[in-house]
Amino acid sequence: MSRNTILLKNTLIILFGKVCTQLISYLLLPIYTTVLSTEEYGTVDLLITYVTLIAPAITLQMEAAVFRFLIDVRDDAEGVSRIMTNSLTCIGGTLGIFLVGYSILTCFIDFKYALPFAACIVANALVSIFLQIARGLGDNATYAVGSAVSGIFTIVFNILFIVVFPFGVVGMLSATALAQFLATIYVLVKTRAFRYFDWHKLDFSVVKDMSRYSLPLIPNSLSWWVIGVSDRTLVTMFLGVQANGILAVATKFATIVVNVFAIFNLSWTESVAVHIHDKDGAEYISKISNQCFKLFSAGGMVLIMACAAFFKYLVGASFSAAYDLIPLLVIGSVFNVLQTLYGVIYIGLKDTKQVSRSSIMAALINITTDLLLIKVIGIYAAPISTICAMLFLAIYRHIDVNRFMRIRIDWKNTCALGMLYAVVCLLYYTRQPVLIVAGLVMITLICAFWNKDLICKMSQTVLNKLRHHAK
Prior knowledge:
Elements (H helix, E strand, L loop, with lengths): L2 H25 L1 H7 L2 H21 L3 H12 L3 H32 L5 H23 L3 H25 L3 H24 L12 H11 L2 H23 L1 H14 L1 H20 L5 H34 L11 H23 L3 H26 L3 H21 L9 H20 L2 H18 L1 H19 L1
């Protein structure tokens, strides 16, 4: 099976597990924005974002090391046992230290969401490690279903805890934690990870090697938290939690591009790690990266026009101010896709120090831009600071990566994308229904034609799989 076929197959498997639940969550947005106040939604959004910072720090980013190191030994049972025993022991110890410290801290600090917040952190850490174990073992089907279990039950519990029983913020946090615990149990049972655990395989040198890879990812994670949360934190501080609720809703739409790309990126990271040292590795990575950027940039344009057409049907009236933020946030997401395509190369080379170094610089640019602009242009400082940080990161990583391997950019397509985005934004801000619908149809047709070869190949692969299962 060719590299491209394997990449596409893995992407489709993961896509099957994630896209449906993410689609449902967006369709449920009208319920969330109707049942919850802007203050409640803003609070939940902020707390969940803090969870995504704290959980990877507690695990020492060992889940990332588990995935990368298992790729190299997935056909060696002894090697798998050694990696899993040492990583799980390390994570178990750090989680225990966190729970003791957190319990002591909450004795002195009054925090009404203390229990569900801690549950979210622990659940996030556990589901992350076991999902990465599934990926590292090459079991993408279990990874996909585990992700689906988490997504589906998050939605089910959210409806139960904020619609049927009006538990508000506590309900949404509890729903997230319970769903992730269920997903952890599913993946643990399916991978039978416990069979690989052997106390006799405990070896500090293995933990040291994995930590050398994972520890630089902690400041990287912190940097991404700054990029993602500094916007929301500063908006909350200077403009109020209601403004953060509006930003959270706009971000929910804009990050569709990043969320869908993240599905592809899971299989792409594995493919790069396996093939980066091939004779034609640079040519292969350049080709796929250009195709991917063109596809997701096109998707960003369609998303902007779709939001213009359907926004009022998807969001409660009290969140209408989010409309004007969406195009800027989508552009930031597209630049995010570009910089991630370069970041994957660092992972393939196991150069996590450079991943961290570049992310720290981007975080500094993000928060500095926020502080300089938020009193001048208000909430618009958030998307603009993100655009600045992502564009810097893409340029820096392109220059740096080319020290190791030649990655070519398709400048013709890049220039065409820039012009089309200008047209799309002009149509979006007219707020004229006729122009918006016409623009949506036009842009969708242009983007489909532009990516027709890739779309045809994906469709053919899906049809072949369906015929195979039908037999």
